[in-house]
Write a structure and sequence with these properties.
7 helices, mainly alpha, 180 residues, single chain
């Protein structure tokens, strides 16, 4: 196979991959609640399967009398967490939003403190820093109360990235004639 065919196939593969990512991004943007549920079910199932594997591993190794083998405990805890996540997928979105919101609020408070210090040193940039801190605070509070916005935003970014990648891939494939 020559270089031209390899590059052409790579271009087509890139376009197909980008189309799939654009579809996933659109679904995440349009159906953020469903996306959280799918993530919750997937994470819960993963934890439960991991728990079962740990328990089976414990049962198989039981004859070794290993004093530091806690696979039974890890397995039970993993299954319990998996069940909690599967039965409370809405809470998962809320927890993600709460953690990110608190982190953003903390960061904004640190910027607010920096703005006050800059004002004390009579720096002109304290106003911009204060404005950014206030905007960050509002974003953090918004994310805490509307956690679905995170998944929707990630979906929009993924969709826009994919569109740009599709355009670049089509441009690459169309310009393959110039390489000849």
């Amino acid at each position: 196979m020559d270089l031209k065919n390899i590059l052409k196939k790579a271009g087509y593969t890139s376009i197909v991959t980008s189309i799939v990512l654009a579809i996933i991004g659109a679904v995440m943007f349009l159906y953020s609640e469903v996306t959280i549920k799918v993530i919750g079910y997937g994470l819960g199932a993963f934890l439960m399967v991991t728990g079962v594997v740990k328990i089976i591993d414990y049962i198989i190794q039981k004859g070794s009398y290993d004093l530091f083998n806690y696979n039974l405990v890890y397995g039970i805890i993993s299954i319990i967490f998996g069940l909690v996540i599967v039965t409370n997928t809405e809470a998962l979105g809320g927890i993600i939003g709460l953690i990110l919101g608190i982190w953003i609020i903390y960061s904004s408070l640190m910027r607010f403190g920096l703005a006050l210090k800059l004002k004390a040193f009579e720096s002109k940039s304290w106003i911009v820093t204060l404005m950014i801190a206030i905007l960050m605070m509002m974003c953090g509070i918004y994310i805490i109360f509307v956690p679905d916005i995170i998944i929707a935003t990630l979906g929009a970014i993924l969709f826009l990235y994919s569109i740009m990648d599709i355009v670049e891939g089509i441009s690459f494939v169309l310009n393959m004639k110039k390489i000849e």
